[in-house]
Amino acid sequence: MLVELRRRLVEVLWSVGPLFGLICLLQITVVQAPAALFVQFLAGSMLVVLGLVLLFLGVDHGILPMGRFIGAEMPRKGSVALIIGVGFAMGFATTIAEPDVLVLARQIDKISKGEINGTAVLYTIGLGVALCTAIAMGRVVYGVSLRLLLTVLLGGAILLSLVAPPEFVPLAYDAGSVTTGVLTAPVVIAVAVGLSSVLAGRSAVSDGFGVLGLASIGPIIAVLVMGLMMK
Description:
Helix content: over 70%
Radius of gyration: 20 Å
Number of domains: 2
Number of strands: 0
Shape: flat
Strand content: under 5%
Number of helices: 9
Oligomer: single chain
Largest sheet: none
Structural class: mainly alpha
């Protein structure tokens, strides 16, 4: 475990090092933030490194193996409804706990001064991801064309973008981008890969992936619909 911990620490430092270095360079050459704020940044950076190391260890040794096991076990129950229901629940539960989504919800609540409720946005995004994750699981089971689903869903998103209130359009597309984060991505991919690996005639590569692409369209549509309902 110590070897793995050191390996992960090196990977995280290589990943976040350029960002921290750039901010330090800007501090020296351009911005000259107060010393107290810069020290606060350094302390926060160390916490970020520690948190990412622990997060990646947890994902590798806990979330991914369990997700693949759940995906592989569901077909043995002989219920398509169960597979789709678990996909829905997984998509919703991971999304409302996703740090990026929580940040977006808090920011929209703060910036709009409560006119757009952050909690409502959070659960709307979660519902959108859940619905499209369930659709993606059904696609794996029935072998529906990914191109067809993407065409229909993206077409719907584009049409809604033309009629939704202007302030909801950028929010919707940001909602689509923040959902595929450190929690949602490993869980959803692991379940889909596990599911496709035990189904006859399915490929873990061509059928197990693409789930996140579908899932990320869900919150775009959901937030645009939310905007139309509030119009």
